[in-house]
Specification:
The structure holds 2 protein chains of 2 kinds.
Chain A (H helix, E strand, L loop, with lengths): L7 H6 L3 E6 L7 E8 L6 E6 L5 E5 L4 E2 L9 E4 L7 E4 L2 H10 L4 E2 L7 H33 L2 H18 L4 E2 L2 H14 L10 E5 L5 E4 L4 E5 H6 L3 H16 L2 H11 L3 H6 L7 H32 L5 H12 L5 E3 L7 H17 L10 H8 L15
Parallel strand pairs in A: 5-8, 10-12, 11-13
Antiparallel strand pairs in A: 1-2, 1-7, 2-3, 3-4, 5-6, 6-7, 9-10, 11-12
Chain B lengths: L3 E5 L3 H17 L5 H15 E3 L4 E3 L3 H33 L3 H33 L1 E3 L2 E5 L3 H17 L5 H14 L1 E3 L2 E5 L7 H23 L1 E8 L5 E7 L2 H29 L2 E3 L3 E5 L3 H40 L1 H5 L3 H37 L1 E3 L21 H6 L6
Helix pairs in contact in B: 1-2, 1-11, 2-3, 3-4, 4-5, 5-6, 7-8, 8-9, 9-11
Amino acid sequence: MLQSIGNPEFAAKTAMSYAELYDGISPVQQRVSLRVSGEGPQAVLELKNVETHAVLRWSLADMRQVPDQARDDTFIFTPDDTDPARLVIREAEALRVLVLAIPELRPLRPANGSLLKVLGMIGAAAAAFGAILFGLVPFMADRGAEMIPPQTEIALGQTYFEQVYPARGAHECSSPAGDAALAAMQARLTRGVALPFPLRTRVVSDPSLNATALPGGHVTLHRGLIEAAESPEEVAAVLAHEIGHVAHRDGMRAVLQGMGSFGIIGLLYGDFLGGSAAAVVTQQLITSSYSRDAEARADAYAHELLANAGVSPGALGVFFERLQDQGLDIELGVFQHLNTHPELLSRIEASAAAAGIGFVEAGPILSDAEWVALQNICGMAAPPAGGVKG
Amino acid sequence: MPALKTEFAGDRGDLFQLAFRTGLLTVITFGLYRFWQTTRFRRWYWSSVRPGGTPMEYTGTGQEKLIGFLFAIILLAIYLALFNALAMLAAIFTSQGASAFLIYGLMLAPLSLIPVIFVARYRARRYIMSRSRWRGIRFAMSPGAWGYAWRACLYGLLVLLSFGLLLPLRTFQLEKYLTDRSWFGTARFTQFGHFGQLYGPVIPFLFCLYGTVAMMVYGVLNSSWTQIGTDQNGMPLFHISGTTWPFLAIYPAGLLILLFAAYYRVASFRIMASMKTLGDGLEFDIHPRTRSLVRIHILGSILTGVASGLAAALILALAFGVMAAVGVTSTDLVENPPVTLIVLTTAMAVMLILVFYNVFRQLFLTFPMVRHVAETLEIHEPELLETIRQRDREDTRDAGGFADALDVGAAF
C-alpha cells in the first residue's frame, strides 16, 4: 500500500489511500493516491496518479460531496461547486482520511438562480395570467358576443337546453294553464322592451333553487325556485333578472369566456385538461368573478323592468332576504357560480333602494288562479318551501 | 479490455421513503414541491445506475425546474389565449349553426396543443440529458424540438392514413431523430437499422386491432338494434338481437390490444437499442428481456392498482373520521359544515391518494423497469472512451417546464 511513496517516515505521518478520479475532461478512469497536507484553510488534498505520478491539489475547504447516493458503498466528491471532476471513493480507509480532514463536508449545490429571479418569474407569470384571464378573455367575450349572428346564438342556446337538463335528469314542464300564466307574466314584464332575441321562457323540473339565462334568449326557471317563491312577484323579479341577462347577451358572453380561458388554468396545476379538483375550483372562482358585474347589471335592469311593469323592484330583494334567512342559497345567473353572502347583501340593499325611488303600483302580476297554475306547471302540488338546496 | 457491465444499486425501501417523504411535502406545499421531488427522484435513480461501477449523476435543481415551469406557462398561456381567440373568431364567422359553433370552439385550441406536446417532450428530454453525467462527462442533446414536433405530427398522420401499417416507420424515425441528436461529451450517438426491422413485433398488435374492427363490423351487420327507450341521462337504450357475441368479445379483445401494444413498445425499444453506437464505433447493448418487461408492466399495473385502492379506502375513511371528529366538538358543524372544511378535507384526501398512487407506481412499475433495463446495459470496447472529451455546460431555459405544464412528463 505504501510502496509508491519513497519516504516511509513521511508516509507514517499521513494517512494513505486510493480512489478513482475522473478529471472532468475525459471519461477515462485514473487511479490516484490520496494524501492530506497542510492545515487550516490552506489544507489541500493531493491526488497523485499512480501511473503518471501527476499530482492534483484540491483545497479541502472548497470540496463538496455529491448528495443523494442510492447506496452508501460509494462516495463521490468534487473539488468545488462547479468543477466537473469527480473523485470516487469506495474504500473505508480513504473515506476515513477525508472525513477526518474535512469535518464539515458540504453537499454539492449546483448553481442556482437567485431568489430574486424566482420571485421575478412568479410576478411575471401572475401578471401574464392576470392580463389574459381578467383583461384579454373578458374583452374578447364582450366583442364576440356583439359579433355573433343572432340565429347562431339562438340555435346554440337550444342545443344547450337540450343537453344540460336531460343530463341533470330534468325535463321541460308544461301545462296549458301554467304556460299561459308564464306567458302573461313575461308579456307584462317585457311590454315595450326591445330585446336582441325573442324571449323563450320555460320551466324545468330541476329541484334546485336556480334560474338560468342560456344564450339566444332561452330562459329557464327551475321548479325548486318556483316552489320557494311565496308570491308571483318574487318569480317575476327573478324572471326580470334573467331578462336582464338576455338583454346584455350574458349567456353568450359566458360561453365565449369559457372558450377563451380554455386550458389556461390547467397549466398552473400541470394538467392542461383541467381535470383536477384544484383546477376546477379555480376555474369556478374566475367564472364567478366574470359574472359579478353581469349580476349587478342584470339586477339593475330587473329593477327598471319591474318598475315599468308596476311591480315593486323590492320583490327581488325580499325574495333573496327570505331565502337567506332560511339558510338557502340561491344561484341566479348565467350559469351556476359561487355566490358569497356580502354580495347578496349588497344586492338586497340595491333592490330596496330601487323600490324607494318610486313606481306606480299596477296590481298583482298574476291572478290567484294563474299563480296556482304556474306553481303546478310540473304536475305536482308544491311541497312546502325549504329543504331544497341550490 | 472486457466490456463494462452495469449494476443497479437502488433499494426499494429507500425509494419508498424518498417517494413517501417527497410526496407528503408535495401535498403540504400544494404541489409546489413537485419540482424538487422530481429532481430528487432523478438524482436517486441516476446514482443507482452504475455502468462500469461508476454511478451516473443528475445535476439538475428543483429551483431551475420551477423557474423553467413559470417561463413555460407564461408562453403557453399566451399561445393558448391566441388560439382560443382564433377559435372564437372561427366559430363566430364561419359556423352556420350550433353544432358547427361547438366543433370550432372546442376543437381548435386542443388541436393547436398537439405539436406543442411533442415540443415539450423533446425539450424535457434535452434538459434531462444536459443535466446527466457519467464519469464527470456531460450528456447533451442538440436543439431540434420543432423539427421533432412536425415529424411526429406528419408520421402520426401517415400512421392514421395507412391504418397503422406505417407505425414502425413512425417509431423508428422518431427514435432515430432523438438518438442522432444525443451526445455524450464530444461523441454523438447514432441510430442504425431500418424501420422494416420493427414489423416483427408490430404484427400481433395490428392483427389484433384489425381482427377486433372486423369483428365489430360483422356484429353490427348481423344484428338488429331496436331502441327500447332512454336511460335517466337521456341516452338511448337499445335491445340487440341476432349475433351478439362480438359485443361481448370486445372486452377480452381490448385487453389483448393493450397487451400487444405494450409488447410492441418494449420489443421495438430493444431492437433499436441494439442498433445504436456512440462516437467512432463504441458499441453498447441494452437487451432487456421483452417478456420480463411485459410481465413487470402487467404485474406492476395490477399491484399499483390494488395497493392504491386500499390506500384510497383508508384515506377516505380517515377523511370521514376527521369530519366526524370535528363535528363531535360542535353540532352546528354537522348540520351546516363550512364549505371550506369540506373542500379542504376533500382536497387533502384526493392529494394524499395521488401521493400513494405515485409511491406505489414508483415501487411496482418504475423501479423494476429501470432496474431491469439498467442491468442489461453493457459497454463494449471501453478503451474507445479515451477518444471522448468533455463538452460545455448548456442552459435550457425551460428546464422541462413545458412538459410539466402539459403533464406529458415521464415517470419521474
